[in-house]
């Protein structure tokens, strides 16, 4: 067999969400990370599909492209991509990247635990704590998050509930699970998916949201919520969601229902958690410190046989 393409990756999961990290620097000239981002979207779409699509990947897999930093303050630079192509900032991807950089010896641990990762959104400060040879905690600082509009009515067959529009890493519609009898648990996933499909259809004509969040705030007094997030393609986020956590915390704080001095824990449908702590507050916006941990799940070589009838792969959702 003559191999047409060979790619080496490291796979990491962060609170259940899977990331595939590539460390192959592209052979091209670029003056900024933004310029590289624009060039990669067109020139490397075949590679992106090869590594993320089935049969080598799956619909929930996210990609991270590690390259040398251009900013002298940064320790590394990363571009994010998904099945559609290059993507914007992904905080979970930063956690995954820091795990690989430190545990695989690409960066030497520092006593300060302070690092900086360059993205197209700027340089992101990171606190990564190691115990022996394991990264046990990664904290990243978010951008500004704010409620765009609250208590928006939504009328749809079998659905009559208001929601909030929150701008975090993308635009979210946040629904509170108060009138629903369905619980956010694996056993009721079928009913939850049906709810998510209906909400996305209803919102298609009302608001240009990228994701819908259903939040159970029963234990908010203890600083804890449980959520499930549906992407606009109806796929469920495989973690509590970094953006989802920011959006929910912002929604809660804007209503005066949370304590800005206390940490906020978001639990997924399968029990993984993300922790957020408000960092700064302006008149109507917040930034957060988001804390999680990554686990390396594999180091793999992917190949493309020139006779493979599925070079671009496929996706079943």
Question: What would your notes on this structure say?
Answer:
With about 325 residues, the protein is an alpha+beta fold. Helix content is about 20%, strand content about 40%. It has 5 helices and 19 strands. The strands form 2 sheets. The chain has a 17-stranded mixed β-sheet that branches. The chain has a two-stranded antiparallel sheet with strand order 10-11. It is globular.
Mean pLDDT: 91
Distance between the first and last residues' Cα: 32 Å
Contiguous helical run count: 5
How many beta strands in the DSSP annotation?
19
Q: What share of the residues does DSSP label as strand, in percent?
A: 35-45%
**What shape does the CA trace take?**
globular
Largest sheet: 17 strands, mixed
Name the helix and strand elements from N-terminus to C-terminus, one letter apiece.
Answer: EEHHEEEHEEEEEEEEHEEHEEEE
Taking all Cα atoms into account, the compactness measure Rg is 20 Å
Percentage of residues assigned to helices: 10-25%
Low-pLDDT parts are none
| Helix-strand makeup class | alpha+beta
């Amino acid at each position: 067999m003559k191999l047409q393409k060979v790619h080496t990756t490291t796979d990491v999961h962060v609170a259940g969400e899977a990331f595939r990290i590539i460390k192959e620097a592209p052979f091209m000239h670029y003056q900024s990370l933004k310029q590289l981002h624009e060039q990669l979207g067109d020139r490397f779409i075949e590679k992106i599909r090869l590594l993320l699509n089935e049969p080598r990947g799956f619909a929930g897999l996210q990609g991270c492209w590690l390259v040398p930093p251009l900013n002298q303050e940064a320790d590394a630079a990363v571009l994010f991509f998904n099945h559609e192509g290059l993507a914007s900032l992904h905080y979970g991807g930063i956690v995954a990247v820091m795990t690989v950089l430190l545990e695989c010896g690409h960066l030497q641990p520092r006593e300060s635990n302070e690092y900086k990762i360059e993205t197209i959104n700027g340089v992101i400060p990171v606190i990564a704590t190691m115990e022996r040879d394991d990264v046990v905690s990664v904290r990243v600082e978010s951008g500004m998050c704010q409620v765009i509009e609250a208590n928006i009515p939504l009328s749809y067959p079998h659905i009559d509930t208001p929601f909030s529009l929150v701008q975090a890493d993308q635009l979210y519609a946040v629904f509170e699970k108060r009138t629903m009898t369905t619980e956010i648990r694996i056993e009721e996933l079928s009913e939850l998916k049906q709810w998510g499909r209906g909400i996305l259809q209803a919102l298609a004509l009302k608001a240009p949201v990228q994701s819908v969040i259903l939040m159970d705030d029963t234990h908010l007094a203890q600083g804890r919520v449980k959520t499930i997030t549906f992407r606009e393609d109806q796929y469920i986020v495989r973690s509590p969601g970094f953006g989802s956590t920011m959006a929910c915390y912002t929604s809660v704080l804007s209503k005066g229902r949370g304590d800005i001095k206390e940490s906020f824990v978001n639990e997924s449908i399968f029990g993984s958690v993300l922790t957020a702590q408000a960092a700064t507050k302006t008149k109507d916006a917040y930034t957060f410190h988001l804390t999680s941990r990554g686990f390396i799940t594999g180091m793999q070589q992917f190949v493309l046989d020139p006779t493979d009838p599925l070079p671009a792969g496929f996706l079943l959702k």
